[in-house]
Amino acid sequence: MAAMASLYGKVVVITGGAQGIGATTARALVGRGARVAIGDLDPLLAEKTAGELGGGTIALPLDVTDHRGFTGFCDEVERRLGPIDVLINNAGVMLLSPLEDEDDAATATQIDVNLTAVVHGTREAVRRMRPRGSGHIVNVASMAGKAGFPGAATYCATKHAVVGLSEAVRQELRGSGVEITCVMPAVVRTHLADGLREAKLFPSLRPEDVATAIVGALDTPRFDVFVPKTLDVTTRVSRVLPRSVAEWFMRVIGADEVFLRARSGARAEYEARVRKR
User: Is 8 marked active-site?
Assistant: First the structure.
């Protein structure tokens, strides 16, 4: 098992860090003495969050789909805080509907934010960390990256891609001293999950649950991080079952309706905000 690492004084970058999982993870890391930079599309909220976190946390505007801007953001963090030790690709969006009802803009937005930006962020981190022989990249995927859920086809596709990206980069980084972690939580009660129903056996998580798992993976580096840990067992079992049995089980626990039967009224404000931006 890898040795436990100290987070004190480490420079940590978190995308989408103004609220939700990003802000909660930032709070946990500040508590461990890390020097945190949060980037977010909402600079005012990011500044407010940074002020509340204290510990020298800085906030900078960041549109992860602007690759040149993303690179400039990383440059500014390193100018102000020093070399980036940890980059957490956390920013993500989810727009729900059956695939045939999804418009091109919704498809493009999810791919741009959830996948292409993660590719760029991961590449930026590798280019900065490999020459130093140290660093840690954390890609926040989802349990939707290990299974297919009706009503969220494009979202699932982006998260499957993030898992695959992370697995490939892990092999590329072998022996480099740079770690990579892929985090796969169940439904987390943030605005992204507004209006979602709960599946039996898998109650929704708090952002604190995911933050704790991320900090744990930074303490003792590991690749696969399922939240809750029982998802790992469920995933392994589903792989050996006949597809018909695995899909029957999803129907029994209501997992097939989590996204498909989301309450549109409860999601209206979140989805309108995503589309506007």
Answer: no
pTM comes to 0.93
Cα–Cα distance for residue pair 110/10, rounded to 1 Å: 31
Strands 86-89, 135-140: pairing kind: parallel
Residue with tokens 């930032």: 26
Which range of residues forms the domain containing residue 210?
A: 11-276
Structure confidence by residue, pLDDT tens digits, 214-250: 999 999 999 999 999 988 777 777 778 788 887 877 7
The CATH number linked to 59 is 3.40.50.720
Helix axes 104-111, 153-172, angle to 10 degrees: 20
Q: How many domains does the chain have?
A: 1
Q: Which of 70, 73, 149, 155 is catalytic?
A: 155
Residue 2 resides in a domain: no
Low-confidence ranges of the chain (pLDDT < 70): 1-5, 201
Phi, psi dihedrals of residue 97, rounded to the nearest 5°: 175, 160
Return the percentage of the chain with pLDDT > 70, whole number.
98
